[in-house]
Amino acid sequence: MPSLKDIRRRIGSVKKTQQITRAMRMVAAAKLRRAQEAIESARPYAQRMRDMLIEVAVSQGGAEHPLLAARESIRNVDVIVISSDRGLCGAFNANVLKRAAVEIADREAAGVRVAIHAVGRKTVEFFGRRRAGQIASRMTGIARVDYAHAVEIAEVASRRFLSGEADEVWLVHSEFESTLTQRPRVVKLLPFAPDPAETVEGKPPFTIEPSAQALLALLVPKALQVEVFRALLDNQAGEHAARMTAMESATRNGEDMIGSLTLKYNRARQAAITKELMEIVSGAEAL
Questions:
Q1: CATH architecture, range 26-245
Q2: Which of 89, 132, 188, 254 could form a disulfide with 242 if both were Cys (CB 3.0 to 4.6 A apart)?
Q3: pLDDT digits (tens, 9 = 90+) for 49-73
Q4: What are the catalytic residues?
């Protein structure tokens, strides 16, 4: 049975840990507010960008772009997996990495060769231990998301798609829904083609100058970058939300542990006092 000194030391240790988790929760909450505002502002822009691309690409039948062209046979697939650089955020990273592992395994089962683009230190560590030979590129240092990160990722994906190294490019990341909910999201990045359900009938009520081809040459790479940027912002907001929830849970668990240790300490102290009294009474009776 631990001594009273050991229990007091344990209670002090838990209290110090609780102070750390409480501070981390407050920091995550402050970062979450900014990250949530960023993703809520980016989503309408990304959706409008995709809608504009659909209107131009579908309505102008003769307009084409290499990044919109689907391949007849799919032999090589690139998978971009986005996670966070840091841990202490519950199952946030584990969920998206497990989903990415399932997507990769399904494609390999169909005879497709898969190359992995690891974004985030947790992704690099996860696939570095399991599929190091399949990692085509690595990127870390995304704790503070910048548009330059999205440009770099989009350029790598575009270059490999245009060179024929990849027939499709898929993006796996965590989508921020609410403070308590972050779900893995899988989206086809390239070819950047609209879904059949999103087709537009007839000609749009506007004229494109100088041509739809020139507009697509500018619009498609930009839309690709915006889609990646949205995924990075989603991941950032989800990370802060998950960390805030995890630290709040850790703080509550610390309170429960302190209560349990305090009860244990009181019982041990009471047992020690009772033992001393019994020794005094026994000594008095002996005299």
A1: 3-Layer(aba) Sandwich (3.40)
A2: 89
A3: 877 777 776 665 555 788 888 888 8
A4: 89
The residue extents of the domains of the chain are: 26-245
**Residue percentage of the chain with pLDDT more than 90:** 51
How sure is the predictor about 247, in pLDDT bands with cuts at 50, 70 and 90? very high
pTM greater than 0.90: no
DSSP string, the chain: ---HHHHHHHHHHHHHHHHHHHHHHHHHHHHHHHHHHHHHHHHHHHHHHHHHHHHHHHHSTT---GGGPPPSS--EEEEEEE--S---STTHHHHHHHHHHHHHHHHHHTT-EEEEEEESHHHHHHHHHH-GGGEEEEE---SS--HHHHHHHHHHHHHHHHTTS-SEEEEEEEEE-SSS-EEEEEEEEES----GGG---S--SS--SS-HHHHHHHHHHHHHHHHHHHHHHHHHHHHHHHHHHHHHHHHHHHHHHHHHHHHHHHHHHHHHHHHHHHHHHHHHHH-
